[in-house]
Specification:
This is Glycosyl transferase family 1 domain-containing protein. Keywords: Glycosyltransferase, Membrane, Transferase, Transmembrane, Transmembrane helix. GO terms for molecular function: glycosyltransferase activity. This protein is 42% helix and 11% strand. It contains 38 helices and 25 strands. Strand 8, helix 9 and strand 9 form a beta-alpha-beta unit.
Length: 1032
């Protein structure tokens, strides 16, 4: 989704080219000296042209006299200063954000970037018609609010929580239902519960017990919630839409070290986690560059975070401006001008201060010369680190320009930049880089109440109004800089105009990007989320009036942190020691000593490398072991042994051969099921559903994937019993019904009990599975009735109370329409008409009563085994008819029975889930609802009240068997109605012709066996019995 690409300021975005994986970008590369050489153009010219150039220069030199020589010298000095600055600033980076870094990791970018150009992050275009935006254009009948799971990590009172809290509060205002999860309890929990929603505290073990499929999307905040990503990477949760917000650079700081140590497996691990997210959101464009190694095309940037204002306010309350001035050697009457640049630089490319010094030449000579008798103006350049070459270079150039020695100073970015911003009188932004994000140093300066002068870059002009929040000058007209500077100075002090601008700038910085950030997340959700058919669409973004961060709820925490003298750097690093990044690093690299890995990363443990003597000793040990083993084998070969009785050996051999074919060892549950009348098969697809499955004699797992079957259980392998489930497409569109088809296929091989039941893993996940008391009631009921046309169910269609609690009375078919994108009736009657070959004028939608009774859902029911086989016979034909309509559709190939990604993936599931109700009602089965908690039984839709409504002629078992035989005959003769015919692949294919052919085959084999036995007897009578030799 995201790409990092360089672009020139004046160039169009279409000319940007990607640079991902070409070079590493670093915020703080180690300073390196770059030899700057200027090839002489004259040396490459012919002698005649060279002499002409020399003559021209001589003519110009003769004309320069008097004051002209002085100005020329000034230009040379400024140019020299710029050149030295260019050399020294090759490693300028923001120490504010991170320190350290490895030399040699960054690559030169001079080939990709030229002067006047900058890197630009290009986001992949999101299809607006795909998500909620597209759903607004289609008719929809929703009955519930859209659900989002929000995982906030540790719930600390910090800027990231403030940002997320503000966004989530506005999402709730649009109609979203939010469920908050946190890894640690916090004193802010009541605030979240009061304003956002219920908060659940999770541990690492609890992540596996959450049914993520009930949510329309999951929003994960920070790297600390990595365990949630791991659980969402398992089936059946892989299709849940995930948005991952990353606001810390902890992992970005470690990535260069991983590459240096060549820990490809650790990088691949994180890259796989990043790939799982539909969108990875960063609050700053620099993060997309720092994490570029893990970019899988899903990066997205939503600018806006209160971290700069938060940190600045804490720092301002904890420090005195006058004391900091004295500490740094500045007087109260000194006019301190702070020159800052971009907070993000690229290795071997630092033009900012070279250009700034060139533009500031006239300003310095006007306000900082030794001959000036006015107030002391001191210019501080914040750049590089605190090494002496920076300051020495500035002082040397200051003396050449005739400036006071203390008028120009250097301050390294590895120091406390906040104290310099706080004591400054004017902040001048002198960067030549046109950044995409608003410069954080300007935000903090405005928060401190310092007037700001900045060039007219688009990102600055977007928020700062010239003359109101700051002064903006044209970057192409350096003369305007002098004019802007004079507006802020009056009699050696800040003018009232400057103080007014500073005050307005402080108010602006407080909530500068709050509105844009909130709307950015809402637009992202509208574009990415695809809501299911039964969900109400959220409100329009235009309804949001949020213009501020929710400072009132977090103001107390800011006051507490101000007393702890927490700096901006501390605020960014307060999770370093407890970060999950280091935990995973230690887990995946056990051979790496923790102290060595974090403190002295370049040390190699030489003691662990085997020496030549070690290899010699090891070879001698192996030789002695081989000699001892050979001697023991020879001794055992000469010793007589008793192998036991022949019958016992034969019995043990046969037993081992029998056990060899069992894929899984039988557990206690299978032994307990022996002799019981009922077995409930729990259908699941993926290891993520394991925590929701039951153990014991009543239940048996039914896995739709061979790889995801539980290891220590006797779960049925549905794929092994029905090969079509090995195809991902059919496994997804059939799901639980496919598992039922596999059980019905040669059912006597796996199920020999009079009653059979099924239950989806989702029933336990949604708290509607049978309790222990209800299980006893059900077992006792079926034990008293060995047979019967009764279906017991315990999961209802309106299980959440949302369908039944709507404003309008919902019928069975209206509920089915809601769950199937409004196309349930149309799809059902088309499939029903095609199945029975009904003409168009005949009604094909079976009537369902409106008596207020319950209907079964989630495939959670029990019926007799003969009834189950009859239902499977009907379901196979109906599913085949439904699939044939979808395959033969000439207008569209996408699923019309769903609107979200998950619904389209499991296209037929929701319709097939309700099919048992239509079959049971119209085949005159007694329908009994059993309360999953108490076990009470209640008959639904009594059979006596159905008379006159049931379509028994279509659900007659004789008719279904006849239709089944017709399909089997067509399949046996190769007469397929269409290419991908589903019916023969969903179960047994059997008709009278196959039976007769099998009987003839058995008779032929029997007669061949008799003939061979007769020939053998005649041969013995004629030649006698011949015993084979022992060797033969």
């Amino acid at each position: 989704m995201g790409q990092n690409s360089p672009s020139t300021h004046d160039a169009d975005d279409s000319n940007a080219f990607p640079i991902r994986d070409r070079f590493r970008l670093k915020r703080n590369p180690k300073p390196t000296s770059i030899p700057v050489t200027k090839p002489s153009a004259a040396s490459s010219l012919p002698d005649r042209r060279r002499s002409h150039v020399h003559g021209a220069r001589s003519a110009v030199t003769r004309k320069l006299r008097g004051s002209t020589v002085f100005y020329l010298c000034m230009l040379i000095v400024v140019f020299a200063f710029a050149l030295v600055s260019l050399v020294l600033q090759s490693s300028i980076a923001s120490m504010v954000f991170r320190q350290g870094g490895g030399e040699g990791i960054g690559r030169t970018v001079r080939e990709g970037l030229k002067f006047g150009s900058s890197l630009k992050f290009v986001e992949s275009r999101i299809e607006r018609d795909f998500g909620i935006e597209g759903a607004r254009k289609k008719p929809r009948v929703g009955v519930r609010s859209p659900r989002l799971a929000i995982i906030v990590g540790n719930m600390k009172n910090d800027p990231s929580s403030l940002m997320l809290f503000t966004v989530m509060k506005n999402l709730r205002g649009l109609g979203y239902t939010l469920q908050i999860y946190a890894t640690e309890d916090s004193k802010t929990k009541p605030i979240w519960e009061k304003n956002i929603g219920q908060v659940s505290i999770l541990s690492t073990e609890n992540y596996g017990h959450i049914d993520w499929s009930i949510f329309d999307g999951v929003v994960v905040n920070s790297l600390e919630s990595h365990d949630a990503i791991s659980s969402l990477m398992q089936e059946p949760f892989c299709s849940v839409q995930l948005i991952w917000i990353i606001q810390e650079d902890t992992l970005a700081n470690r990535l260069p070290f991983y590459e240096e140590m060549r820990w490809e497996q650790l990088i691949a691990y994180w890259k796989n986690a990043f790939r799982r997210a539909d969108v990875v959101v960063f609050p700053d464009y620099s993060f997309s560059m720092l994490y570029s190694v893990l970019d899988t095309g899903n990066f997205f940037v939503i600018p806006g975070s209160p971290i700069d204002v938060w940190a600045a306010e804490i720092y301002q309350k904890a420090h005195s401006k006058s004391q900091l001035r004295i500490k740094n050697g500045f007087g109260e009457d000194d006019m301190l001008v702070l020159v800052v640049g971009s907070s993000f630089f690229y290795n071997e490319l630092s033009w900012d201060y070279a250009v700034a010094m060139h533009n500031l030449g006239p300003l310095l000579t006007s306000y900082a010369r030794e001959s000036n008798a006015g107030p002391l103006f001191k210019f501080v350049f914040v750049c590089g680190n605190s090494s002496s070459p920076y300051n020495d270079a500035l002082q040397d150039i200051a003396s050449h320009m005739g400036l006071r020695r203390d008028s120009v100073r250097h301050y390294g970015l590895d120091g406390d930049v906040d104290e310099m911003l706080l004591i400054a009188d004017i902040v001048l932004y002198g960067s030549s880089q046109d950044e995409q994000g608003f410069p954080s140093l300007i935000t903090r300066a405005m928060t401190f109440g310092v007037p700001v002068i900045a060039p007219d870059y688009p990102i600055i002009s977007k928020y700062v109004v010239d003359g109101e929040h700051g002064i903006i000058f044209s970057k192409d007209k350096p003369d305007e800089l002098m004019i802007a500077f004079k507006l802020l100075i009056s009699k050696g002090k800040l003018s009232n105009y400057a103080r007014s601008i500073a005050s307005s700038g402080t108010l602006l910085a407080k909530n500068m990007q709050a509105s844009e950030c909130v709307r950015g997340y809402m637009k992202l959700l509208d574009s990415v989320l695809t809501l299911p058919s039964d969900s109400i669409l959220p409100g329009l973004i235009s309804q949001v009036k949020q213009e501020e961060w929710e400072w009132d709820l977090f103001s107390e925490e800011i006051d507490q942190e101000s007393r702890s003298n927490m700096t901006y750097t501390d605020l960014k690093r307060d999770t370093r020691d407890t970060s999950v990044v280091y935990d995973i690093e230690e887990h995946m690299t056990p051979s790496l000593d923790s102290g060595t890995g974090f403190q002295n990363e370049s040390v190699i443990m030489l003691d662990d490398i085997p020496t030549e003597l070690d290899w010699i000793v090891l070879s001698e040990i192996d030789s002695l072991e081989d000699t001892d083993r050979v001697e023991l084998e020879e001794i055992e070969g000469r010793t007589d042994k008793s192998y036991g009785v022949w019958e016992e050996l034969y019995h043990d051999a046969r037993k081992s051969e029998k056990l060899k074919f069992e894929a899984n060892e039988r557990d206690e549950g299978e032994l307990e099921r022996t002799g019981q009348p009922l077995c409930i098969y729990e259908v699941y697809n993926g290891a993520g559903a394991w925590p929701f499955l039951h153990h014991g004699s009543l239940y048996r797992g039914l896995s739709l994937s061979t790889k995801s079957r539980r290891l220590r259980s006797d779960d049925v392998d549905a794929v092994g019993r029905l090969s079509i489930l090995n195809e991902t497409y059919y496994r997804d569109i059939l799901l639980e019904m496919g598992g039922m088809f596999s059980i019905a296929n040669k059912v006597d091989n796996v199920h020999k009990r009079p009653w059979i039941g099924f239950q989806s893993w989702r029933a336990a996940a949604r708290k509607v599975s049978l309790s222990s008391e209800a299980e006893k009631v059900l077992e006792g009921t079926v034990l008293q009735k060995p047979t019967g046309d009764v279906i017991y169910f315990w999961a209802r269609v309106d299980r959440d109370g949302e369908l039944a609690g709507s404003d309008h009375a919902l019928t069975f078919w209206s509920m089915c329409d809601i769950l199937n994108a409004g196309n349930c009736r149309m799809a059902f009657q088309d499939a029903f008409r095609h199945m029975y070959a009904l003409p168009t004028y005949v009604e094909a939608l079976p009537p369902m009563p409106e008596d207020g009774g319950h209907w079964s859902s989630l495939h959670s029911w029990v019926m007799s085994t003969p009834s189950f086989l009859e239902f499977m016979m009907f379901s196979r034909m109906f599913a085949d008819s439904l699939d044939s309509l979808h395959m033969n559709a000439s207008t569209t190939t996408e699923c019309l029975l769903g609107s979200s990604v998950s619904e389209k993936q499991h296209c037929y599931c929701r319709l097939l889930e309700l099919l048992v109700n239509v079959w049971a009602y119209h085949s005159a089965r007694t329908m009994v609802y059993i309360d999953p908690n108490s076990g009470s039984l209640e008959e639904q839709h009594p059979v006596e009240q159905r008379k006159g409504f049931m379509w028994t002629k279509y659900f007659n078992s004789t008719l279904l068997k006849s239709m089944d035989e017709d399909l089997a005959e067509a399949a046996d003769e190769g007469d397929h109605p269409y290419e991908r015919w589903l019916w023969p692949r969903t179960g047994e294919v059997h008709w009278q012709g196959i039976y007769e052919r099998e009987r003839e085959e058995r008779y032929r084999i029997k007669m061949d066996k008799k003939r061979k036995q007769k020939e053998k007897m005649l041969e013995r009578l004629k030649f006698g019995y011949k015993q084979k030799t022992i060797a033969g």
